[in-house]
Amino acid sequence: MAQIFGIDHKYFAVPAVALSVGISAYSVYRLYSQSARKCATRTPSNVYESEKLLGEYLVFHYGSPEQLIPYPFGPKDALDFPKRSSELCLKHYKAEDGIPSRALDVGCAVGRSSFELAREIQDVIGIDYSQSFVDAANRLKIDGQVPYSLVQEGDIVTPAVATVSKDINRNLVSFEQGDACNLRSSLGEFGIVLAANLICRLHHPKDFLSRLPKLLSKKGSILVITAPYTWLEEFTDKSLWLGGYIDQNGKAVTGFEGLQRELGSDFELVEDVNIPFFIRETARKNQWTVAHATVWRRK
């Protein structure tokens, strides 16, 4: 047995097929082909199907503070980002006549926010582009827990278990694979839509935003978008960026301004706040990022 962070674990090696991939992408939408731009033709990228990345998202969503930051220092206020995102939704949601008790978590990854929304919402749908993430979320729904590998250093990993809180009714949540730019037409209407760290990883972000007025058709319904605004041509053709560019008049256009332009006719901005989050890659290499969270109410 070996002692790691004060907890006894047995070392074992990551399978050779697992990819060594950083977690610089904060959602599971990836641009594949620079020539093929249609939403319906996308297929999941291998980078999002790796065992290593799955483990990084499981610990990001369900890891304990000791697993994520095993030191007496560190940005511990940045933990539990998926839970804090769902709490921001519920803070503004009001169960009024005509507003559905339904929530849509787009880019749900391995499902923590979806489960947390079910504390107050009667029907929650989580959609993600990665089939492996959806499979893990569905296993969490069925079993309440999923084992995974926590990378310590190189091929050295320790076993861990992601667990859904027992006071959450998992039967209220369902998960499916899908593309945010081409959501199925039969989804229906919602009282809440959450898109956490998604918008700057979509190949056609305006296609997603244009669908929101129908998904949130009832006045008072809530939309929450969080984003670090890390615009990259790897994910989105530069001509389709919502922000992060200099326009033809020499003006710097931000992602926030792009959201206001696209959403302003149908939604009222009711709050914007900076929310830090912490992603663990290894025992000693991590990412600290600040997402801009904007809360919108349907007019």
Automatic annotation (TrEMBL):
Classification via Gene3D superfamilies: Vaccinia Virus protein VP39
Domain of life: Eukaryota
A Pfam family that the UniProt record links to this protein: Methyltransf_11
SUPFAM superfamilies with a match to the protein in the record: S-adenosyl-L-methionine-dependent methyltransferases
One Gene Ontology molecular-function label: S-adenosylmethionine-dependent methyltransferase activity
The keyword Disulfide bond is annotated on this UniProt entry: no
TM helices/strands, residue ranges: 12-32
Record keywords, A-Z: Membrane, Transmembrane, Transmembrane helix
InterPro entries per the UniProt record, alphabetical: Methyltransf_11, OvoA_Cterm, SAM-dependent_MTases_sf
Domain Methyltransferase type residues, every copy: 104-223
Protein known as: Methyltransferase type 11 domain-containing protein
Organism for this UniProt entry: Candidula unifasciata
